[in-house]
Amino acid sequence: MTTDEQIVFIVDDDQRIREALSELLVSHGMRAIAFGSAGEYINADKPDLPACLILDVELPDINGLDLQRQIAVGGHPPIVFITGHGDIPSSVRAIKHGAVDFLTKPFSDADLMTAIHAAIAQDREQRSQRAGLGVLKQRYLELTPREREVLPLVVSGLLNKQAAAELGISEVTLEIHRRNVMQKMGAASLADLVRMAERLEIPITHSRRSGGG
Asked: Which residues are paired to 32 by β-bridges?
């Protein structure tokens, strides 16, 4: 794995800590960019790569835990907190809001590297999921208005006869639309289509009625 495939951001107001962490990461073949404050990190142009954010809790401009909350809505790399003043409430708050780990100084290089690798692996997985969702959204946009009406009826479990009646069309026409939906969405089975609809958060407003023939 090359340094171009991943990156670690360091936010700590102690220059000695920044330099030591940067040297450690370089020795492990990892690229690092260090910042002395939360503001510097937020305003910097950052490479779009699988990443980890090593974040000090006590910063000159904003508390690291508050920064975690602020950047959560915009998406950010998984966070590994480091602090010289660790306490249980802070660690619980950090982990509850998605931090990978909460390390109290002095921590071992091994513990830090384990946390960093876990964070980057998590970021890779999240990126993969976002990319997959983007593909599904694009496929959904390529459906015709009628096909978008058919999709939720199909995944709700309605029989073809019931779905056709719901839309006021024939079963044959419904089958054609259903086949087109499956093909355009790239669904190999109905179960596959159901999972896609769930990921797209398509509202299911109908359910299969007992006794339908």
From this structure: 8
